[in-house]
Design goal:
This protein is mostly helical. It contains 19 helices and 2 strands. Helix 11 packs antiparallel against helix 18.
Length: 459
Amino acid sequence: MNLAIKSKIYSTDNYVLFVLFHIVLGILLYEFDFLNTVYFVFILFFFLFRILFSSKEDKTIEILMACAYFTGIEVLFRMTKGGLSYEASKYLVIIFTTIGIFYKGISGKSYPYFAFLILLVPAIIVASVTLTYGARFRTNVAFVLSGPVCLGIASLFCFDRKITQKQVLDILLYILLPCITTTTYLFLYTPSLKGLLSGTASNSATSGGFGPNQVATILGLGVFIIIVRLFLQSNSLRFKILNLIILGAMSFRAIVTFSRGGVVAAVIIVIIFLGAIFYRSSKKQVNQLIQVSFLLGFALVLVWGVSSNQTDGLIDMRYVNKDHLGREKKDITTGRWHLFMEEVDGFLESPFLGIGASRVKNKRVEAYGRHLPSHNEIGRLLSEHGFLGIIILLILVFTPISFRSRNKKNMFFYAFLGFWFATINHSGMRIAAPSFIYALALLNITNEKNPLRRKQLKK
């Protein structure tokens, strides 16, 4: 008996059914708390089965789809406490891609990411000395390094890995679907915003009772993916309407978190993506794209109008950096610049090896009595890794650019890299999304193979 699974069985052509399933899933997860853990365990074994028993040719796509799904659903599981651990999605991306490396090997040109992973080690050694007695060494170090390690392992697996454009779109769909579930859950959690808001700060009440920054980040990524589908995979009117409805609902929930970082990141990568497809298109295709662009623009203006109405104009105040009384705020970064400068001070304090992994958060506990993790991965790398952090940043920036000079078929390259860079500057690497999306930029996009058609010989 052949247990090999063909990915065609789970074809993403059944888009409408997938969307409906994930809307119903959001309702069920909201109504029955215990289902969150049950669903986590179910999809864990489901994807493991698909990976382990898939054919060799399907192994890569199965692994990437598993990583994509857990990337998309990570924030929902954190919100509902349904995952087996807070960092479960990052660990699973690491496990899945490690399985992929075992079965499929890695490119000989991916050595910069080996160097990247090795350069993370000294900060652990320094932390063993610098962290105070009350700090939980293993937990704190794992918290700050799980994101970078996730990026490193995923990049090793993805580097120069051949995959088709259709498969990339399928991977993006597997991120989008749980974002639809998250959006459904948020509408049930706070169906109306009227009278709920009193200021312009990020609001957990509109974010499922969870961190607005992380919610806005994953929904912003979902908005980007649905716009990709609107332009590339909405050939009929019914698909355009469906995708516009999803776009409206998801962008509304992202906006009303009052966390600007995820929304701004989405705007940046959408602009990059649109620039890429306009550049690649013929004159006839450009005319079609312009029509869809006007449709998209109208939808987003409408969404902003609804958001403004539902928040009694507070969202407008938020994006012009004013408080609820209309007074301009002094710090547009809402304290992030001060945190970044503290991290620069840490670099100046110990410029060679840094102050040690998680020491920044540890110092803030000592100074303020509160856990204030870094929002900026660049600042954290500089302070906790010192000069090695600069080398790490150079590897992360210039390795994909060098790869791009040899492989220019990935139309999402700059959008993926842009999402990573924008996200690590406002949210660090708290969730798996920036790590996994960065790795996707390293894929080697190949042309679809057209089936050979042989002429039948006449008798």
